[in-house]
Design a protein that fits this description.
- Residues 26-148 form the SRR1-like domain.
- The protein has 258 residues and is α/β, with parallel strands linked by helices.
- It is 34% helix and 12% strand.
- The radius of gyration is 19 Å and the shape is globular.
Length: 258
């Protein structure tokens, strides 16, 4: 008989469904050698929502890495990059077995055999990070032609016009457009299960508008849809970039978290 104060999380349907959604992600992921976490944020922050976000997102990243390791029976190297990291963040990450690198060091570890986790990477950083590679698993803002990727393209076009006076789109901008289309066309995408927020987070929704990206297979497995929905979730993702990013906080210095 269970003790009066025993926490029986394994018997609660919402937790079971969330675990099933994580297991689906792991089962659908090809072999991973390295896991890269971008733009995790600050561990010590005056905004409790920001501090909480780092803790929960770090935990989610490590849990997925552990599940992948169990599936593969191999050790996965974990890499972390964020220019705002200071000794407190580096200490926590080192305790968790991770390695902190400086930009652009993470790119060396982002390959077709990588898991890339970037829930708070802002759109202007995408051309120099996410779309340059085609990882085995990417979780973060939804990458599609148009949408949020229009932000870095517009910013770079404006910069080009002011610097050179040329109105024609330069080859670097066309390359970003081509890389974005190639990335978007190469992946199946579905929304990350946000059940976790309602169960565990106190100050915000730290996993909303996050999309899971798996490389498309030659023969789609239509009978293996993610729990609770189709393999490609309907509707566009929120194009608003999350401010706590690889480029640092934006605006008036707020936390940058929704």
């Amino acid at each position: 008989m269970a003790r009066k104060n025993e926490i029986l999380t394994h018997t609660q349907p919402d937790r079971q469904e969330f675990r099933a959604s994580l297991q689906y992600i792991v089962d659908k992921t090809d072999h991973v050698d390295t896991a890269v976490c971008l733009a995790l944020g600050k561990f010590e922050n005056v905004e409790l929502s920001a501090e909480e976000a780092l803790q929960h997102q770090l935990a989610m990243f490590l849990v997925l890495c552990e599940m992948l390791e169990i599936k593969q029976n191999t050790k996965i190297k974990t890499i972390f990059q964020d220019p705002r990291f200071e000794p407190p963040e580096e200490y926590v990450i080192t305790l968790a077995g991770g390695e902190v690198v400086k930009h652009p060091g993470a790119l060396e570890h982002m390959t077709e055999n990588s898991f890339v986790f970037a829930p708070y990477l802002v759109w202007p950083a995408f051309p120099d990070t996410i779309i340059k590679t085609h990882p085995a698993l990417y979780i973060g803002n939804k990458v599609e032609s148009g949408g949020g990727m229009g932000i870095p393209i517009a910013e770079r076009y404006v910069r080009q016009f002011y610097v050179t006076g040329k109105r024609e789109m330069g080859p670097d901008l066309q390359e970003i457009i081509d890389q974005t289309k190639k990335f978007a066309d190469s992946y199946d995408k579905y929304l990350f299960d946000t059940t976790y927020d309602s169960l565990h987070t106190k100050y915000g929704s730290h996993f909303q508008n996050m999309w899971v990206h798996h490389p498309k297979r030659e023969r789609p497995d239509s009978d293996n849809d993610p729990p609770g929905g189709a393999s490609v979730a309907p509707g566009p993702s929120n194009p608003k970039p999350k401010d706590d990013s690889d480029h640092g906080p934006k605006g008036d210095g707020g936390s940058g978290f929704d």
